[in-house]
Amino acid sequence: MPKVLLKNKTGTIDVTNMISTIKWSGSISEVARILELEILYPLHDHYAPKIYLNIGDEMYLYDDTGEELFRGRVFYNEQFGEQGTIQITCYDDAIRLSKSKGKYNFKNKTEEAITRTVCNDLVISVGKLATTSISQKMLCSSMGIYEIIKSAYEGASKQNTKKYHIIMKQGKLNVEEVGKEVLDYTLKADSIILESTYSENAEGVVNKVKIYDENDQYLGVVQNDELIDLLGVFQEVYIKEEDKQAKAVAQSMLQAIDEEISITVIGNTSYISGKTIKIEDSLTKLMGSFYIESDEHKWAGGKYRMKLDLKSK
After folding, report:
1. Do 88 and 53 form a contact (C-beta atoms < 8 A)?
2. Residue 35: is it exposed, middle or buried by C-beta count within 10 angstroms (0-12/13-18/19+)?
3. pTM of the model
4. Closest C-alpha to 134, from 105, 163, 104, 154
5. For residue range 112-149, what is the model confidence (pLDDT) as tens digits?
């Protein structure tokens, strides 16, 4: 089991031995990573060590090598008297982005500049930010801070087709390109894959996008001929924006058949949302590279398991 430290007004305490279950999770579609703990609190055992966590107390999670995995604060706690346990939920500091709003008028500002500006207003330290060199024009009126950062990077995504996500590392906000970091180890069915499922869904397919200017003049079209032959035409329309490359944006609007992949494997703290993994699973015929869309790590009963939801690259 990894090490868990509590930091409160009295100091820093190692509470690892008081914890029965640890769940650590995150997703590229969610702003903050979450730490959920079940802490032993035996009311009738006067000799057992007891500790009660308060809202705002800081929690730290470290792996076996001492590397920091999580840093956040207690946002929820509940004591179960008869069971002798306390359930707590912690979020890292990125949660403040989703609970705060701002008003800005950005002109010719890159995503990195926009991110630094809004984080500075919330006194959130900034680490490494993905560089796009694509300037944006954004009028934000009482807009959520997370939505501002997300919209800024989505503006770049429309032109370079890359995806980005926010992740806190050692108390600093980072924006990373989804799938850029590739993990070395290949997951195989005969080694550490315990369960796996695979499904396909064509309900969200867009295989043709027509492009017009602001005067309704037709400018061109992008399309996926293979998907049109397979399913027929599912069409969208794009009105060219002043600061966008029309064909690049239209191309980003095309949507392929959605693949949903879920696997349960023996735990490894390197496997978190946004990274790319390689899989060889002959049972479900999952072969190739996939990026991690969401991850859930759980330590309980002496076992460490993780569930990963994946998407094709």
Report:
1. yes
2. buried
3. 0.88
4. 154
5. 999 999 999 999 999 999 999 888 889 998 899 999 99
The residue type at 185: Y
Q: Is the pLDDT of residue 191 over 70?
A: no
Q: Which residues contact 159 (CB under 8 A, 6 or more apart)?
A: 134, 244, 245, 248, 249, 252
pLDDT digits (tens, 9 = 90+) for 25-59: 999 999 999 999 998 876 656 666 667 788 999 99
Spatial distance between the Cα atoms of 206 and 240, rounded to a whole number of angstroms: 18
CA-based nearest residue to 118, from 155, 146, 157: 146
Rounded to whole angstroms, how far apart are CA atoms 86 and 51? Answer: 9
- C-alpha neighbours within 13 Å on the C-beta side of residue 198: 12
Count how many residues are written for the chain: 313
Beta bridge partners of 177: 164
The total of other beta-carbon atoms located within 10 Å of residue 193's CB is 19
Listing DSSP states for 210-235 in one string gives: EEE-TT--EEEEEE-HHHHHHH---E
> Which residue, chain included where needed, has tokens 């996008």?
209
Neighbours of 114 (CB within 10 A): 23
Specify the 3-state DSSP secondary structure of 244.
coil
**Residue with structure tokens 């999670």?**
61
Round to whole Å and give the CA distance between 229 and 267.
42
Strand partners, 91: 34, 73
Long-range pairs of 24-27 with CB within 8 A, sequence gap ≥ 24: 24/61, 24/69, 24/70, 24/296, 24/297, 24/298, 25/294, 25/295, 25/296, 25/297, 26/167, 26/272, 26/273, 26/294, 26/295, 27/273, 27/293, 27/294, 27/295, 27/309
Q: Report the distance separating Cα 91 and Cα 77, nearest Å.
A: 12
